[in-house]
Design a protein that fits this description.
single chain, 149 residues, mainly alpha, 2 domains, elongated
């Protein structure tokens, strides 16, 4: 998913949100609108009462998001360690590197700690590294912008 660049109070942003759903809740809402189910539910919901669609949509978006969001930035110590990891990493990761990536990922993205079993695929770890690289790059970009001011 691409990220919106520009003013978030514009029509373009609202259109971008429609074209780029946040999670499963947005997708289900789109389907129920297209099939007419949403109008049917609204028609049979008593006046002044909420049908619960918005709450359900928000809950599903939180449970099944399409875009992974970091819940916090890297600390200076984490940034230094990740920089060293990034500069020295190879396609083969040792156990300490795997544990470092899994721990950092779970903390930055507020996800349950997951470490793949020994001798299994490291694809989940490589995905974690991709996500952490994006956080690290945004951290580096922010530091660079601050130093230019």
């Amino acid at each position: 998913m691409n990220q919106f660049k520009g003013d978030k109070s514009t029509k373009e942003y609202k259109q971008w949100l429609k074209d780029n759903p946040e999670g499963l809740g947005d997708t289900i809402e789109k389907i129920t609108k297209a099939t007419g189910i949403k109008k049917l539910v609204e028609r049979f919901t008593p006046k002044g009462k909420e049908c619960g669609c918005n709450e359900r949509k928000e809950k599903l978006n939180k449970m099944f998001p399409y875009r992974l969001k970091a819940v916090r930035c890297l600390t200076e110590d984490e940034q230094v360690h990740y920089k060293a990891f990034k500069e020295n990493r190879t396609l083969r990761l040792n156990n300490d590197e795997i544990k470092f990536v899994c721990k950092l990922y779970s903390e930055i993205f507020n996800k349950l700690y997951y470490e793949p079993p020994k001798n299994s695929s490291l694809k989940p770890v490589y995905r974690m590294i991709e996500a952490l690289d994006k956080v690290y790059e945004s951290y580096e970009k922010e530091i660079k912008q601050r130093s230019e001011k």
